[in-house]
């Protein structure tokens, strides 16, 4: 089995040292079990106990006497597929409250049944992490804890961009990284896909959607018409990267707007879609304004939405997927939004906190031109809600090209494989 480095590992180790309960969630097949059993040293050592709740016999044994069976002192108790038996959270809470060194790592394939119970039972005791499919840096890097171009830029700012621009990448290495980036945009990051030929990858992605429908929604029991829901997924995937209009989707599906809202909520909490909110002065304003809809994996978006490779929305979706993965392993993740003026001019992604702002525009071509930097430049000069003027502001137009090039003051064209690939 090919084991890729997972950038979330240092953050997971830190949380396990500081919190009695760590909850790691994510879509099915993102590698949660592999992460804790094969990559986390403590997860496979004698001081850890791994219990899979996919095993019905294990569920019966735990249900009979949960406190005694989970009481292993200082050993790390790993409960996989915890959403199968959420009643165990009461026993986890009881043992954690004894403050006798108990440590628990809870793995869940879905937020659907898990997170509400976690919030109700483990509030103040648990910390939450999310594992997404593989990021590009995790596919291409060889270091155990790789550093991407974006890691470097977010840490060091403008100096890092200038540093990246001076690093010479050999022609062979550039070809390798560009080919992997193209494959990543085309098929997405689910680890099981990598060793498969293209025809089997297509089968796998289609079966993944079917499994999701049959397993997660069977757990919910709230979708009466699975065929209609499958059609909704196809329609929504074809709209990835667009402003979401519930009424338009409802009209095309022939269902009520509330049904569309419910479908989207299911897709959100099972990590299939992400609703990107606009950069506006207040939280209430951001929630009221229409978000942009993105599928969280470009491979699934392409297959379900029948989107051609090279499509601008698919390239934008791939960038959003990389940003979600990058944020998941940050100790203090910045806010992620999009920016849109009243005149309709838009910057696809804005990462920001109190000290730094990074504006990112997606351009699915080999080259960017100075005209592509105009809206990004305008954003860098604008008075923005919650972002101090003294915060360092940088802009990127991300392409499928080869070189890092200046486009305007504070704005560069940068290939996706340089931004999301290894920094050195």
What would you note in describing this structure?
With 424 residues, the protein is α/β, with parallel strands linked by helices. Helix content is 46%, strand content 17%. The chain has 20 helices and 14 strands. The protein has helices spanning 9-18, 32-39, 41-44, 56-64, 66-70, 88-97, 111-121, 136-140, 149-156, 158-166, 171-187, 198-220, 226-238, 246-253, 257-269, 283-288, 298-305, 312-328, 374-381, 416-419; strands spanning 21-25, 48-52, 76-80, 103-108, 126-130, 242-243, 273-276, 292-295, 335-340, 346-352, 356-362, 392-399, 405-408, 411-415. The strands form three sheets. Strands 9-10-11-12-14-13 form a six-stranded mixed sheet, with helices on both faces. It has a five-stranded parallel sheet with strand order 2-3-4-1-5, with helices on both faces. A three-stranded antiparallel sheet has the order 6-8-7. β9 and β10 (346-352) form a beta hairpin. α9 packs antiparallel against α10 (158-166). The model has no long low-confidence stretch (mean pLDDT 89).
Give a quick precis of the structure.
The protein has 424 residues and is of the alpha/beta class. Helix content is 46%, strand content 17%.
Number of separate strands? 14
Average pLDDT: 89
Helix content: 40-55%
Describe the main β-sheet briefly: 6 strands, mixed
* Ends distance: 26 Å
Low-confidence stretches: none
Rg result: 22 Å
Total count of helical runs of at least 4 residues: 20
Spatial order of strands in the largest sheet: 9-10-11-12-14-13
Structural class: alpha/beta
Strand content: 15-25%
Shape: globular
């Amino acid at each position: 089995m090919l084991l890729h480095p997972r950038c979330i590992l240092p953050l997971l180790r830190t949380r396990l040292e500081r919190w009695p309960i760590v909850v790691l969630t994510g879509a099915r097949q993102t590698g949660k079990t592999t992460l804790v059993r094969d990559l986390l040293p403590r997860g496979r050592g004698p001081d850890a106990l791994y219990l899979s709740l996919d095993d019905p016999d294990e569920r019966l044994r735990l249900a009979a006497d949960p406190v005694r069976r989970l009481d292993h002192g200082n050993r790390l108790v790993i409960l996989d597929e915890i959403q199968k038996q959420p009643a165990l959270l009461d026993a986890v809470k009881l043992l954690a409250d004894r403050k006798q060194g108990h440590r628990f790592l809870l793995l869940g394939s879905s937020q659907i049944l898990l997170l509400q119970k976690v919030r109700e039972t483990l509030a103040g005791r648990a910390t939450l992490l999310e594992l997404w499919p593989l990021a590009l840096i995790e596919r291409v890097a060889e270091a155990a804890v790789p550093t991407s171009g974006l890691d470097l830029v977010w840490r060091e700012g403008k100096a890092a961009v200038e540093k990246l621009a001076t690093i010479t990448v050999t022609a062979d290495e550039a070809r390798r990284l560009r080919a992997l980036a193209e494959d990543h945009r085309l098929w997405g990051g689910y680890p099981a896909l990598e060793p498969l030929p293209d025809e089997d990858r297509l089968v796998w992605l289609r079966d993944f959607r079917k499994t999701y429908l049959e397993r997660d929604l069977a757990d919910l029991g709230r979708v009466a018409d699975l065929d209609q829901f499958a059609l909704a997924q196809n329609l929504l995937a074809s709209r990835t990267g667009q402003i979401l209009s519930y009424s338009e989707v409802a009209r095309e599906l022939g269902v009520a707007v509330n049904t569309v809202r419910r479908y989207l909520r299911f897709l959100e909490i099972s990590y299939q879609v992400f609703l990107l909110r606009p950069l506006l002065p207040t939280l209430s304003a951001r929630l009221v304004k229409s978000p942009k809809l993105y599928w969280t994996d470009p491979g699934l978006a392409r297959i379900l939405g029948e989107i051609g490779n090279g499509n601008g929305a698919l390239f934008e979706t791939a960038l959003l997927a990389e940003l979600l993965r990058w944020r998941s392993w940050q100790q203090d993740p910045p806010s992620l939004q999009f920016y849109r003026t009243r005149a309709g001019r838009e910057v696809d992604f804005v990462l920001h906190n109190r000290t730094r702002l990074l504006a990112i525009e997606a351009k699915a071509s080999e080259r960017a031109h100075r005209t592509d930097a105009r809206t990004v430049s305008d954003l860098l000069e604008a008075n923005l809600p919650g972002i101090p003027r003294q915060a360092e502001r940088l802009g990127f137009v991300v392409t499928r090209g080869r070189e890092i090039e200046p486009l305007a003051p504070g704005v560069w064209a940068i290939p996706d494989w340089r931004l999301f690939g290894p920094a050195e």
